[in-house]
Write a structure and sequence with these properties.
Layout (H helix, E strand, L loop, with lengths): L1 H22 L2 E4 L3 E6 L4 H11 L18 E10 L9 E11 L7 E11 L4
Antiparallel strand pairs: 1-2, 2-3, 3-4, 4-5
This protein binds zinc ion (ZN) (2 copies).
The site of one zinc ion (ZN) has 4 residues, from loops.
């Protein structure tokens, strides 16, 4: 019984670390693009915003609860395209201003690029 507990403890710590990583604000990461959404408390909304910037979802003009207007809020997002440029600084960073509807049944978003810069990140 004691040996079993000793085995389980590191596993529990590992699980806790994994959960902490999941709670971080990095919501979208593919091989070369990383998107961090800030100022959006709702995890599903944050994920949706990241997916939208990546071009993986289509935005419907309004959800059923928004026939008479959206419930808009603002956030920001930072997209990093790793090894985007051939020479240093190689990574490209784009910041976005996000306007999104907070209702869960609605996926309406508009976003505009605010800055584009190159950063020393990968070699
Ligand atoms: Zn809406
Ligand atoms: Zn990089």
């Amino acid at each position: 019984m004691k040996a079993r507990k000793m085995f389980l403890k590191p596993f529990a710590i590992l699980m806790a670390v994994c959960m902490l990583v999941q709670l971080g604000s990095v919501v979208g990461a593919v091989e070369k693009t990383e998107i961090v959404v800030n100022g959006v408390a709702d995890k599903q909304k944050a994920q949706h915003i990241a997916d939208t910037i990546k071009g993986e979802v289509t935005i419907s003009p309004f959800g059923i609860a928004c026939l008479f207007g959206h419930s808009m809020a603002q956030g920001t997002a930072i997209e990093t395209n790793h090894r985007y440029y051939a020479t240093a600084p190689r990574c490209r960073r784009v910041t976005y201003k996000i306007d999104y509807c907070t209702r869960s049944s609605c996926n309406y978003i508009t976003y505009t690029q605010t800055t584009v810069s190159s950063v020393y990140c990968c070699s």
